[in-house]
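Listing S7. Sequence submitted for prediction.
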Amino acid sequence: MRPQSRFRGIPAAMKRAVVASEDANFYNHEGVDYEAIREAIEADWRKGKFVHGGSTITQQLAKNLYLGCPIFRSEERRG
């Protein structure tokens, strides 16, 4: 496992970069970016395979809180 950093020790530019790369419209939606989901579905359909996801940071957090963080999931849960 990677060592953890304190949130306040991470430079603001790095935090903004992560938000921008994970959820470009983070500050413009209320948790679900329907346009990003539509674009992801269309891209996947055009390519005939999974190209990229359309989930927001909020949706990813909810998934990890509800299902457990993938890093810590047991083998039985994954299976």
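Caption to Listing S7: primary sequence and predicted structure tokens for the chain studied. The chain has one domain: 11-78. The mean pLDDT is 86.
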